[in-house]
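Q: What structure does this chain adopt?
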Amino acid sequence: MVDAAAQPGYETFEAYRGDLLAHCYRMLGSLDEAEDLVQETLLRAWRAAGRYDPLRASPRTWLHRIATNACLDALEGRARRPLPSGLGPAGDPHAPLRPSLDVPWLQPFPDARLGDPADVAQQRAGLRLALIAALQLLPARQRAALVLREVLQLPAAEVAQVLNSSVASVNSSLQRARTTLRAAGPVLDELRGPADPGEHAVVERYLAAFEAADVPALTRLLADDVALEMPPVALWLSGRDDYRRFIERVYVMRGTGWRLVPVRANGGPALAAYTADGRAHSLQVFTVAGGLVRRCVTFADPAVFGPFGLPPAV
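A:
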């Protein structure tokens, strides 16, 4: 019989909300769906609290088991959530900017939703957009095995328990997942790799150059092979020159006088962009390495501002 005194209460479950939200987001690539799945997880946990056995699993492992299986159920028959670079080759900086509203795009994750500040550094692991996009290439159970084992760092035996599987099966799934991700590029380095110590300074200089419409200064902050992505527009660009041409086009189309607000997204620096008339425009999420911007994913959809606690106008 399970000791009733050892049964966790709802306050215990709530303490893991941020951790569970990050986990479900890694599995689904969607903040909206992750929020729904976390709520379902907490409800399932509350209903099953009488069956929780602390001798078999910690509350965290038990909750992640419920959340993972809820995610696996949700992923059945679902299309993957890509970034534009996952759909085809790089395009022309002067191409039409037509939103592809039929694509279930990858969504950004607000770091402020991670919860307990003491755990934020660990929770940020594996949230970089390039890795989240690559995880979408994996079958659901391989995705779960990799996230549980490599991001949450659960022992193989606990992962097997979560997935109702064997340790041998977990190790096999993990090996296949890692092989797939290696073929997708150096995304595995983003599991627990240290951030560029100068990334904030680089993004601060980017902010100043963008607000000043100083294209030469902004261009100097870009790597030669920098990528610019703009969901929900399927177009993406590769290389410093095309990036520069596109920024010049932005100022022609939208004018100058932009205001950018620093935020944190997907474990790194981001900028919320408002046009000169004060309207929310886009959220720019950066990857910085070697003192240069390597990737900027610009979510050109004001709807993403809400989860970051950002106003629709300033």
